[in-house]
Structures are given as C-alpha cells and as structure tokens.
TrEMBL record:
Alphabetical list of CDD domains matching this protein: MLKL_NTD (cd21037)
Biased segments, Basic and acidic residues type: 230-246
GO molecular function: ATP binding; protein serine/threonine kinase activity
Protein name per Swiss-Prot or TrEMBL: Protein kinase domain-containing protein
PANTHER family referenced in this protein's UniProt entry, alphabetically: SERINE/THREONINE-PROTEIN KINASE TNNI3K-RELATED
Residue ranges of coiled coil: 69-96
UniProt keyword annotations, A-Z: Coiled coil
UniProt-annotated stretches for the region Disordered: 221-246
InterPro entries: Adaptor_Cbl_N_dom_sf (IPR036537), Kinase-like_dom_sf (IPR011009), MLKL-like_MCAfunc (IPR059179), MLKL_N (IPR054000), Prot_kinase_dom (IPR000719), Sel1-like (IPR006597), Ser-Thr/Tyr_kinase_cat_dom (IPR001245), Ser/Thr_Kinases-Pseudokinases (IPR051681)
Domain of life (superkingdom): Eukaryota
Span of domain Protein kinase: 183-508
GO BP terms, alphabetized: cell surface receptor signaling pathway
Length: 695
C-alpha cells in the first residue's frame, strides 16, 4: 500500500509519518500537569468505543461467513478489553500518552479497527462478499487484517493470547470452512441471486437502492413509479372457473399475452407518497425471483383500484395441504424453493414479517411463490404494528413474541418462522391448533415447541424426515446466537433435493390416500420433543429456576424443591443455595446439615451473598466441622459486602459490641450498621438511634 504523502514548503513530497509526527508533537507539546496528557486521547477513546459498538451490531446481523467473523470478533473483544484497561489506568500510562509515536500508533489502531468493521460488513453479506472476487481474495484480506491488528496492538503495548499456533490453526480452519460453504452456496443458489459471472444480480442492488429511498427522510429527486396497466388490457377469462372470484377482493382476469392474473382490490393510502411508490416499485422488481409472486402493477376494475398479481391456480400452500397429501420428495422441493425466495429477500435486506404457508401461493405447476408482503422494510426498522397478531403468533419467534412492539424484527426472526413453516408443511396442519394465544405464548417462551412425532414407513422416508427435523430444530433454537443461518438451511435442503430428486413434477393426492395406514399421527401438542422423530422420545421439561423461587414464596415447597433439584444438575449456583436452605431448615422433612453446609460452601464460593451468610452460620452447628472464627468472619464479611442485609446487621453488631474475636471496632461496626439501616433493617436502626448515631 503506497504511503500517504503531502508536500513541504519547497513542493517536495514528504512521508506522511513525518508530518503526522510533527502534528502530534504540536498537539502534545503544550501539555503540562498530570492528567492533561490524556486529553487528546479522550475523543479517540470515544471513537474506538463507537467503532466497536458498530462492529458488534454488524456481527449480530451477519448472514454469511460467521466463523470468519468470529475469529475477528475475538480480536475486537481483546481490543475492547485493552482500551478499557488503558482508560482506567491513564495515570500509569502518562508517559505513553505524551509520546508522539504512541499518538500516531493510536490513530493507526483506529484505522485497523475500521478496516475490521468494513471487512465483517462485507463478508457477512452477499453484496459485500462479491467485492473480493476481483480484488484481493477474502483469504488474503483476512490474513492481512490479522497481521495489521497484531502490529497495531504491539505498537500500543497491548497484549493478547491470540498470537499463537493454536489460534492460527483455528483461524485457518474457520476461514477454509466458511469459504467452502460459500462456494457451495453460490454454485447452487440460482441465477436470480447470483449470475453466471458469480456476481450478485444487479436487480437486487436496484431493490436495495429503492429500499433506502423508501426510508430516507430526504425527498427523492428521481421519479419512482410502479407499472400501471390499462384497464382495457384486463380481459375476462375465455373459460370460466368456479374459483375465478376468491372472496370479495380477488378476481381472475387475463392479460393480452394470455397470462392469468389475480386482481386484488386494495385501497392504497397516499399512493403518491415516496414510501408507497418505492414499496410498489420494489414489489415489481421482486418478480426477478422465480419463487416470489409476480406483481404486474396497478390498474382499475369498475373504478376500483386493484393490484395485479400472478394467478396461483391452487391458492395458498395451506389450502393445498388441507385438501391434498403432498409426497415427501415434493415437500423437499417446495421447502427448497421457499428458501430460495427468502435468500433473495435477505440479499436485498428485506424482511417479509409473516412467513407461513398461508402466504405461499401455489401455481398450476405447483411452484411455491412467497406473497403477501406487509411492507418491504429495512432490516433495522422496528416492525409496523401488526393487526393480525393473533394469526401470526403461531409462527412468531420467542424474542418477538415476548415484546412484539419494542423488540426489533430481524432475519433471525424470519428463520424461526421458516422453521415453523417447515413443520407446518411436514405435518400438514396449523401449528398449535388446539391452543389459544395465551397458551401458545406461555408454552413457547418457556422453551416449548410443537410436537415432532412421525411414522417412518421406509428408509427413504426416515432419512428425509430426520433431515427435515434436524433443520426445523436448528431454526427453532431459543438462543438467536445458535439459531441456524439461512445459508445453512439452504445447503441442507439443497443436498436433500439432490439425494431425492423428483422424477416428475409434483403431484397431489386426496387426503389420506397417499400414506394410508402410514400417515403421520395426529396427537395433542406437548412440550418440545427434540429427538429421533421415529422414536417418540419426549425430553423432560426443565422448570426455570425463577419458577421454583416463586413456588417457594407461594409455599408450594414440593414444586420448588423439584425445580431446585433439577437445576442443580446443570450446576446452577443459585439452585445449590436453595437446596442447601431446604436441607438446612428441614423443609419437606428433609434435614441434612452436612449436605446443606457443602451446598452453601459451593454457592458461597461462586459469590452468592445469601449462601455466604448461611455458610458462615452453618459453621456453628454442622456435625463433623470444627468452628473456625476467621473463616466465619471472612464469609460473613463477603456476604455483607455483597449486599446481604442480615450479614450487614450481624457483622455491624459484632464489631460494634466487640463480639468478634474479642475485637471491638465501633467505627467498622457503625459502617455496616448504617448499610443495613439504609436498607430499612429495624435492628440496625435501633442500635444507631440508641447510640445517637445519624445515618
């Protein structure tokens, strides 16, 4: 990379590092008193903090090359720790702060962090990833960034444990794994996303531009228009059908070229507004995807505004599966095609917001077409209030279900909904059909999911079903960080489709005819079963620890004990404390002071203040344990410093009245008594008032 250069008074170019050094000396030379030295760095600290926040946000939305991003995030986290340490120890680093070379190095460090941010932003999206096809390769750029980062960290005297052979091996494996997956993905996704030159389809770029214009507060100088169809070009079909009119809003017409179209009566508010025009223009361009319902444009029928869409002979996928049995190989192809549509949208940075079979239309050739877009929103926008919340709740991600108004809708939410759609297609029924909205919400937020219960009539069906279940479970993960990416799901569906191709176009059979006695069982919905679907094994429901504590408060001791006992198996520190408490007090008739002492000790050593208090006092009366006053005081002090009010009172009383090791320390005792009194402890308040001590 060439050096940045400027010119001296004689017009000769000089090295930028010399110029920067002189500027740094000017900036730092006037500093005098201790503390002034850090002043020029304060805006730099703020800049780094902002960059790191932006990197974290970009990483959270990463759609591709997650392992490569992870390797860089290890560095970002190390840098964040080092910067915070430098800020905290600014007085100790005054010499460095006064060094012009260090000042320049800090600026270089900022640039490296900016480069890392940009690289993560690029490789985590398809449109960004393509930038490296004809410039530096991703591999070279990644390795270059790693080297630049290590150099910048060394220049600032920051230390990390990331510069070793083991880390190099991990980085190398992560890079190769991601690049191999991307190669497979790009080779199989189809020309509606990636063209023959391995470049992102330019239509997708157009959509991104329109989308940005739609959300921009600035008026757009470039006219945005949706296609308008002359009403005269909408003909009545030559041969009528019973379903030519669907409900009160959709009627079938025919264009001059012979295409059947659905004319949907739609009142468009503020049709001339920038947002609506951009939305309609985006809908028109989405037809580039074979698996998104084609929008032809706007027109009028009998003076009523209509939106003209491609006609779907079979109606929605929900209507299809309720009427017909769908073969397993056909289900694979349908799932793959719907996934292609979602990849197309993801590449445009567009969220659908309502992924379910009712919004997938089926053509005469049984090609699924995603439809019924609420709005083509940018992925960082808050979700528009959804009036039909009761309809979409069955497919909603738990994080969105918890607070649908304030939690931002992301691609991870779409993936969860897609997992629910796959379940719906697999079992050919609406999710949670026997539960009301409150039951569904309660069930899902506790980690529950729909049943997975199937009969495997052949080895082929078993393999297909198992793969479907694996995909569904990966999309259903409660933790968004481990929820599958769309690329991972696509590659699994693509492999499944390659292993079990359809010999002919999809066929439909009347319900109950295709499977006969081997059809999927219908049974009541239970908590999530993430097992081999052919084994019907139900995983135990783990009651959250919070529910156990609430049960204890409600004096439902049996339920509380069961919860604590279960959570201790997962090494829950708080659960250990509660089990110790029950065994210490003999609740439920189970008294075991030795076991209680052991549990209190484990929880106390993990920093639980209540456990520290109980462990300290358990030393007085536990069989087989010799009382140690120093250990007692040590744990009681930890509990008091940890905010336990009872510990604050007892420790204060003991010091104030000389009850500890024969030592009387009124000042220290008063300190702890005041802490307890401020927490409204009546015993401490009484002691302080009796001794006329203000608090």
């Amino acid at each position: 990379m060439p050096l940045n250069k400027d010119k001296d008074d004689a017009g000769h170019e000089k090295d930028a590092s010399i110029s920067n050094s002189e500027s740094a000396k000017n900036a730092l030379g006037v500093l005098g008193v201790v503390g002034d030295a850090v002043q020029p760095y304060l805006p730099l600290f703020s800049t780094v903090t902002i960059i790191i926040t932006e990197i974290n946000n970009t990483y959270e939305n990463a759609k591709y090359n997650k392992k490569v991003c992870n390797s860089l995030m290890d560095r970002v986290n190390a840098a964040e720790f080092s910067i915070k340490t430098l800020e905290r120890r600014k007085n100790e680093n005054e010499k460095n702060f006064r060094d012009p070379v260090y000042f320049i190095a800090f600026h270089h460090f900022i640039e490296v962090m900016k480069n890392i941010k940009q690289f993560i932003a690029n490789v985590s999206t398809l449109s960004g990833f393509q930038k490296y096809f004809h410039a530096k390769s991703v591999k070279d750029k990644f390795e270059s960034l790693i080297n630049e980062f290590e150099s910048a960290m060394n220049d600032l005297h920051f230390t990390t444990n990331l510069h070793n052979e083991e880390q190099k091996r991990i980085d190398h494996e992560s890079l190769n794994s991601d690049l191999q997956e991307m190669a497979k993905f790009l080779n199989t996704i189809g020309e509606n996303v990636i063209d023959t030159n391995q470049q992102v389809n330019t239509v997708l770029t157009e959509i991104v531009i329109l989308k940005n214009q739609m959300v921009s507060p600035k008026p757009n100088t470039t006219p945005i228009t949706a296609n308008v169809i002359d009403p005269k070009d909408l003909k009545d079909p030559q041969v009528g059908r019973p379903d030519d009119r669907r409900g009160s809003t959709v009627v079938r017409k025919m264009l001059n070229n012979g295409d059947d179209v659905a004319c949907k009566n739609k009142q468009i508010v503020d049709a001339e507004g920038q947002k609506i025009k951009a939305h309609l223009a985006i809908l028109g361009k989405l037809k580039e995807s074979r698996n998104i319902l084609k929008f032809y444009g706007l027109s009028k029928i009998e003076d009523q505004n209509v939106m003209v869409f491609e006609w779907a002979d079979y109606g929605s996928l929900q209507e299809v599966y309720l009427k017909y049995d769908i073969g397993w190989r056909s289900k694979i192809q349908m799932a793959l095609d719907i996934c292609r549509a979602l990849v197309f949208l993801q590449t445009c940075d567009i969220l659908h917001h309502d992924i379910r079979c009712a919004n997938v239309m089926m053509t005469k050739q049984l090609v699924p077409k995603l439809s019924n877009f609420k709005y083509a929103r940018h992925n960082s926008q808050a979700t528009t209030d959804i009036k039909e919340i009761t309809n979409i709740l069955r497919w909603m991600a738990p994080e969105k279900m918890k607070d649908h108004k304030n939690v931002r809708y992301t691609f991870k939410c779409e993936i969860f909904s897609f997992g629910m759609l796959l379940w719906e297609l697999l079992f050919q029924k609406i999710p949670y059909e026997n539960k009301d909205m409150n039951q569904i919400k309660d069930h899902v937020l506790k980690g529950g999911r729909e049943n997975i219960d199937m009969n495997c009539s052949s080895q082929e069906n078993k393999t297909i079903q198992n793969t479907f279940v694996e995909i569904i479970i990966s999309a259903w993960q409660h933790d968004v960080e481990i929820r599958a990416s769309l690329m991972e799901i696509f590659l699994k569906l693509q492999k499944l489709a390659a292993d079990y191709p359809m010999d002919t176009s999809p066929t439909l059979n009347p319900r109950g005819k295709l499977y006969g006695s081997q059809k999927i069982k219908q049974r009541s919905i239970e908590p999530m079963e993430l097992s081999d679907p052919c084994q019907n094994i139900t995983l135990p429901t783990i009651v959250p620890l919070e529910e156990g504590i609430e049960a204890h408060k409600a004096r439902n001791h049996k339920k509380a004990w069961s919860c604590f006992e279960e959570n201790v198996k997962f090494n829950s520190t708080v659960a250990k404390y509660w089990m110790g408490y029950y065994l210490s007090e003999g609740i439920l008739g189970k008294k075991d002071p030795v076991k209680a002492n052991q549990l209190f000790k484990e929880a106390a050593d993990d920093g639980i203040a209540d456990a520290q208090l109980h462990y300290a006092f358990s030393l007085f009366n536990t069989p087989g344990i010799k009382f140690d006053a120093k250990v007692f005081v040590s744990y009681l002090t930890k509990a008091a410093n940890g905010g336990n009010i009872a510990a604050q009172y007892n420790l204060g009383d003991m010091y104030f009245n000389g009850k500890i090791l024969g030592i009387k320390d009124v000042e220290l005792g008063t300190k702890y008594l005041k802490l307890a009194a401020l927490n409204n402890d009546p015993r401490s308040i009484k002691i302080l008032k009796n001794n006329k001590i203000d608090f």
